[in-house]
Amino acid sequence: MTLAIAILNWNGKKWLEKFLPSVILHSKEAEIYVIDNASTDDSIPFLKSNFPSVKIIQNESNSGFAMGYNQGLKSIKADIYCLLNSDVEVTENWIAPILRLFSQDQNIAAIQPKILDYNQKDKFEFAGAGGGLIDNLGYPYCRGRVFENIEFDNGQYDDETEIFWASGCSLFIRSEDFWKMNGFDERFFAHQEEIDLCWRLKNEGKKIYYTGKSKVYHVGGGTLKKENPEKTYLNFRNNLSMMLKNLPASKAFFTLFFRLHLDGYAAFYLAYKNGWRFLLAVLKAHVYFYIQLPKSIQLRQKHQIDPYYQTKWLMFKHFLGPKK
What's the confidence (pLDDT) of residue 308? Predict the structure, then answer.
């Protein structure tokens, strides 16, 4: 199998300077590409001067994570894509366990490694941790991370197992499956587009996997900080659109009706905790969810599966109970 590592970049020279050397050192099996989303810093001259072996694809505009990858990957020919954030440090032998899993089961469409916190390397990182799951109300969480509670890595997720979604910060995916799904939903711009893609793959009977035999270290928040209301807007909007697209018809109305009410409570909690801009972000997310409603319905596949629920009613178990 041929492998291409694609790093999406927007004004991220400092991350490329810091982390690209580890990618080159530990990725001899792969061709390495940087897809640039019309950066206005000197990322491109820096790459050409310091990393001549890295291939550069230049998009015409900053079109976000989803469209940026869709545009850039059209120019890359490989059996496996690795979509890698620019703020990720990879480790020795991180690729071999993943290629082994792909070779063992043709039905595996996507795989993620163990994702640890670059700044606290014995702790899991928010965006992916030990593999992504989802509860019956559409709340994404991870083995190793439930809402804001993050576990230390004590080897508890050193296994290899099927999961529900693989993190976009280090996402290995068969190119054939990526394009069969028409790539990411470009309306998402950024955040949760990889969960939507994995859900669509599972609707087609494909498997999403995690391996703890491979690990990377992720800084996180390189483009949008957690305390940015734009991040809140994108997460709330995209999560609702994702559920409408992918939930079985028999469950979509009840689940979305319930979630819209819970989002209202969440908006006031966020306003109390972080300021009124966050309440407005949730309100804006709902408005744009309704605007996008016809297109989301149009994009529903012929078949929808019930997601694998490791736990149900996660929000209530977490905030009113002991599920951390």
Answer: 74
- Does the predicted model carry a pTM greater than 0.90? yes
How far, in Å, CA of 74 to CA of 71, rounded?
A: 6
- Decide if 104 contacts 207 (C-beta within 8 A): no
**What are the φ/ψ torsions at residue 66 (nearest 5 degrees)?**
-65, -60
- 104-119, pLDDT tens digit by residue? 999 999 999 999 999 9
Give the tens place of pLDDT for each residue, 227-262. 789 999 999 999 999 999 999 999 999 999 999 999
The stretches in the chain having pLDDT less than 50 are none
Do 72 and 201 touch, CB atoms closer than 8 A? no
Tokens of 26: 């530990």
Whole-number Å distance between alpha carbons of 186 and 192: 11
Backbone φ and ψ for 306, nearest 5 degrees, come out as: -70, 125
Is residue 31 within 8 Å of 78, Cβ to Cβ? yes
Q: How many CA atoms lie within 13 A of 53 on its CB side?
A: 11
Instruction: Name the residue among 163, 172, 147 with its Cα closest to residue 208.
Output: 163
Sign of CA dihedral 194, 141, 274, 240: positive
CA distance 86 to 220: 10
